[in-house]
Amino acid sequence: MTYPEPTDETAVQHVLAAAARDIVDQSLAGHDADAVLGRLGTGYYIVRAHDAYEKARGVGKTPRGAVREAALVVIKRYRFEYRLGEFAR
């Protein structure tokens, strides 16, 4: 399946979709698609995704590379906030 190339106008949607898919694919209890999408749809994560994307673009990343990098930032923050993985302690 091919995905459309992200643009600066659609970057946040791409970042949040990539982050949500990664988290949901881990099949963690309490983190199904509805829960994850609801949590990532808050203003906090939207701003975090935008800022991380802009930072990555500012250092010369391609739109797709910037989306990848920003998604990792969002995933890391989500995992920290909900105490998942290495942050579970």
| Through-space gap between termini | 38 Å
Sheet-strand content, in percent, reads: under 5%
| Percent helix | 55-70%
The DSSP helix count reads 4
In N-to-C order, the SSE pattern is HHHH
Q: Which term fits the overall shape? A: globular
Largest sheet: none
Q: How many E-type strands?
A: 0
Unreliable segments (pLDDT under 50, ≥5 consecutive)?
A: none
- The Cα radius of gyration reads 13 Å
Summed over residues and divided by their number, the pLDDT gives a mean of: 92
Secondary structure category: mainly alpha
Plain-language structure description:
The protein is mainly α and 89 residues long. 65% of the residues lie in helices and 0% in strands. The protein has four helices and no strands. The chain has helices spanning 11-25, 33-40, 43-58, 63-81. Helix 1 crosses helix 3, helix 1 crosses helix 4 (63-81) and helix 3 packs across helix 4 (63-81). The mean pLDDT is 92.
Overview in brief:
The protein is 65% helix and 0% strand. It is mainly alpha-helical and 89 residues long. The mean pLDDT is 92.
